[in-house]
Amino acid sequence: MTSAIAPTTTMLINGNRVPASSGAELPVTDPYLGEDFATIPDAGAPDVDVAIEAARAAFDGTWRDTPGVQRAALMHRFADLLEENAEQIGLLESRDNGKLVRETTSQARFAARNYRFFAGAADKLSGRTIPMDSIDTFDYTLAEPAGVAALITAWNSPMQLLANKLAPALAAGNCVVIKPSEHASLSTLAIADLIEQAGFPAGVINIISGGAAAGAALTSHPGLDRISFTGSVPTGRAIATAAAQNLVPVTLELGGKSPNIVFADADLDRAVTGAVAGIFAAGGQTCIAGSRLLVQRAVYDEVVSAVAKRADEIRLGDPRDPQTQMGPVANRPQFERIQAVIAGGLESGAHAVTTTGPLDGAGLGNGLFVRPTVFGDVSNTSPLAREEIFGPVLSAIPFEDDEEAIAIANDSNYGLASGIWTNDLTRAHKVARRLRAGTVWVNTYRASAAQAPFGGTRQSGYGRERGLEALQEYLTTKNVMIDLSGKTADPFSIRT
């Protein structure tokens, strides 16, 4: 299969398709076939400088004063183009990071939904009139764009992660410099054509690619007004540190070790499916992965046995094959890390309730495949339950009652997502209130909506994406105070 949107070897800076100024490139490897099939530019500090200068010129030129209704029209056209090209984008992304093509295609369409949602808000941004202590003072606020924003995405869901950031940034009136992960840049570079077709002015949206040097130059640049990053906790810490030197605010969407809690009164068939979806969809390579399965003791054996059976039956293979249920791991460093975690768990005496050992069989080719793994009776103090693995590895933990479930769920350095499976409405509400997580799903898992805010607490980061709350990440508030009295004030006493 080939894509109508082909791999590109150029970046988008100030409306122009350009290579890295140094000429450096990075190879792109298909994680299923195990072969290089494209290259991307490996940008450096000079490229970052030019991209940020282009964004600043566009912002200070006309974009900051472009009416919201015009920004919305551009965003709607871009959404239409994304939807029209969703299959080609999905195929390109699947080849780049190994995710199932049916999911990458679905995510491209969901990305379009996000642009439409925020386009609807672009002409509705407003401040407020504030009543003052004196009728001779008129006071109001303005909601204004932050300026130039750096948007940095991870390799697991490039199109969707970009939409989480770019849609509210554009709606709020910002210009941007986008940097996708060097492990999955192709779909982001490819949409340069769609950005041009949609009619965005040069410099409003800039896309660079590359490795650590490009990332460091971007996040430490004094010309930024906002940074939004999705990725690992260590990289998030480094970005926050670099941004702090320039006092640039940062939105961080980082890792998770999310609890998926099954109570004895739940619909167990649905709960088992939810547990499988929570950890084995996308090969567990998602920040919201329900990697800790907490099950009430009365149904623990039944649920864990059912999940393990489903895990052993998962069909691995070509992510472009519609029959495949789980593709390869996206890149070799991650593959090696997951394998090391599984081996370490087995060596420490952890009990695997799924099949273990090397994978073989037709359809796996040279792919970076990891066997779906379930560990049973895991202590919440174990590294298996504490550390984000970012792979198809599930830790099952028993609990006795609501209080113990809540205590185990909250005993984590993370706080991104969580799931509750119960038919008791009172329990659902009470437990949801007490979980320390940015998202709580009840009788579902791994569900998204453009309208629903998303983000975490603690080491899962801060700030929100999606939902109207995301607009606030890209807006600043200006206060305007007008003296209507016509009187000359005492120059040596502050007016109150």
Description:
This protein is of the alpha/beta class and 496 residues long. The chain folds into two domains: 11-254 and 456-479, Aldehyde Dehydrogenase, Chain A, domain 1 (3-Layer(aba) Sandwich); 259-442, 3-Layer(aba) Sandwich (Aldehyde Dehydrogenase, Chain A, domain 2), CATH 3.40.309. 36% of the residues lie in helices and 19% in strands. The protein is built from 15 helices and 20 strands. It has helices at 45-61, 68-84, 86-97, 101-119, 158-171, 186-190, 192-198, 212-219, 233-245, 268-280, 300-312, 332-347, 383-386, 402-410, 425-434, and strands spanning 11-13, 16-18, 25-30, 35-41, 129-130, 137-145, 148-152, 175-179, 205-207, 226-230, 250-253, 259-262, 292-296, 351-352, 373-376, 393-399, 417-421, 439-442, 461-462, 475-483. It has a seven-stranded mixed beta sheet, sandwiched between helices. The protein has a six-stranded mixed beta sheet with strand order 9-8-7-10-11-19, sandwiched between helices. Strands 5-6-20 form a three-stranded antiparallel beta sheet, with no helix packed on it. Helix 9 (233-245) links the parallel strand 10 and strand 11. Helix 2 (68-84) packs antiparallel against helix 4 and helix 4 (101-119) packs parallel to helix 5 (158-171). The chain is globular. The mean pLDDT is 95.
